[in-house]
Write a structure and sequence with these properties.
Elements (H helix, E strand, L loop, with lengths): L8 E10 L2 E11 L4 E5 L6 H9 L6 E6 L2 E5 L13 E5 L10 H11 L4 H14 L15 H13 L5 E5 L7 H18 L3 E5 L2 H7 L2 E6 L2 E6 L1 H6 L4 H6 L3 E9 L2 E4 L15 E7 L4 E3 L7 E9 L4 E7 L5 E6 L8 E5 L6 E4 L4
Parallel strand pairs: 3-8, 3-9, 6-7, 7-8
Antiparallel strand pairs: 1-2, 1-4, 4-5, 9-10, 11-12, 11-13, 13-19, 14-18, 15-16, 15-18, 16-17
The structure holds adenosine-5'-triphosphate (ATP).
The site of adenosine-5'-triphosphate has 12 residues, from β2 and α1.
């Protein structure tokens, strides 16, 4: 198979166990060249383990990994390429810079490993440092830099050798929120400019949505859904994915002769649901509006309200239930107000069956 025709990364049936503990189960995906895949999930779901398998820091218990058509790990066949032979750039949460080396020497390291001559090395290091805005700081030690600057050095080091694949492991989690936002923009710019193929681990959905072409939402060692960010928001595959992504309120529903009611209440949503007697309904925060309550229709009590400049961020409890919904409203509402909740039926998302 020619490497041009191959996806940048192909993973099949990947699993990892430590003794009886299964950490990853049957993970599979492809990343096209020039695409960014985000691995998004809560702490402990296996994101870092998956990245370590891709990097060659761990060997899988089952399955295979191909990078540009080359098999780099195969549990059954025994193939295993070490990290330095996989053509990767890596950016870690803790920067992982060598404290005794200058910024320029840190960035030059991957080129040295590849035997690039000194003159070319200097030019490429200079260009990479310029690209991340650190051209003036080449002679400094990492300890004399801020956290954001150190992470820029790590970025420059990851891209300087134009790797086939860049792996990011929560690269921004040590930075303060404002700097994080700026760095997301910078990483997005670098990825686009160099046409990088990247896999980006994060537990922050804003980062994942901002950077990724595809997002793998992970839960308990499996990929719960793999889709472009927009599709995750409009078509979450399960109530769990919807809840993890904070898309709105997932309500248990019961079919009655008068239509679908929110379980335990007299409020009906007036929409076609799935077949069966029980289901769950996602009322999405992004398209639910407040208004005057209508008898027999969903309503909620305002628990919290926050002015956000262009409107209000409201938290409401659906009446007669413990379920809360957060939404943005151009209309002011006071804590304790009872308001009607209106969502176009086409924006609601149904999941067949009752909660487990
Ligand atoms: N060496 C090990 N032996 C046994 N279990 C391990 C080992 N390393 C990791 N685990 C377990 O594997 C699971 C996945 O860990 P991993 O670090 O991949 O999760 P994560 O999604 O990256 O979490 P975080 O966001 O907190 O870093 C966790 O339950 C962890 O306790």
């Amino acid at each position: 198979m020619s490497s041009e025709a191959s996806p940048a990364v192909r993973v099949r049936g990947l699993g990892l166990s430590y003794g009886p503990a299964r950490i990853l189960h049957d993970v599979g995906f492809e990343v096209a060249q020039g695409e960014v895949l985000a691995l998004l999930g809560p702490s402990g779901c296996g994101k870092t383990t998956l990245l370590q398998l891709l990097a060659g820091l761990l060997a899988p218990t089952t399955g295979q990994i191909d990078i540009r058509g080359r098999r780099v790990a195969d549990a059954a066949g025994g193939a295993f390429l070490p990290p330095e032979a996989r053509g990767l750039g890596m950016v870690f949460q803790d920067y992982a810079l060598w404290p005794h080396m200058s910024v320029a020497d840190n960035v030059a390291f991957p080129l040295e490993m590849r035997g690039v001559p000194a003159r070319e090395r200097r030019a490429r290091v200079g260009a990479a440092l310029e690209r991340v805005g650190l051209g003036q700081l080449a002679g400094r030690r990492p300890s004399d830099l801020s956290g954001g600057q150190q992470q820029r050095v790590a970025l420059a080091r990851a891209i300087v050798a134009e790797p086939q694949l860049v792996l990011f492991d929560e690269p921004l989690s040590n930075l303060d929120p404002e700097l994080r936002e700026a760095m997301v923009g910078e990483i997005g710019g670098l990825v686009a400019q160099f046409g990088l193929t990247a896999i980006y681990v994060t537990h922050d959905r804003t980062e994942a949505f901002a950077l990724a072409d595809q997002v793998a939402v992970m839960r308990a060692g499996r990929i719960a859904q793999l889709a472009p960010p927009q599709a995750l928001v409009t078509e979450p595959a399960s109530p769990e994915v919807a809840e993890f992504l904070h898309l709105g309120c997932v309500l248990p529903m019961r079919r009655t002769p008068d239509g679908w009611r929110i379980a335990g209440t007299a409020m009906s949503v007036g929409a076609e649901g799935p077949s069966g007697r029980e289901a769950r309904l996602l009322l999405p925060g992004r398209s639910t509006r407040i208004g005057t309550p209508v008898e027999g229709r969903p309503a909620g009590e305002v628990l919290r309200t926050r002015f956000r400049g262009d409107g209000y961020a409201l938290t409401l409890r659906i009446l007669d239930t413990p379920f809360e919904i957060q939404l943005a409203s151009p209309v002011r509402a006071a804590v304790g107000d009872v308001v009607g909740l209106f969502c176009p039926p086409e924006d609601m998302r149904w999941f067949a069956g009752a909660a487990a």
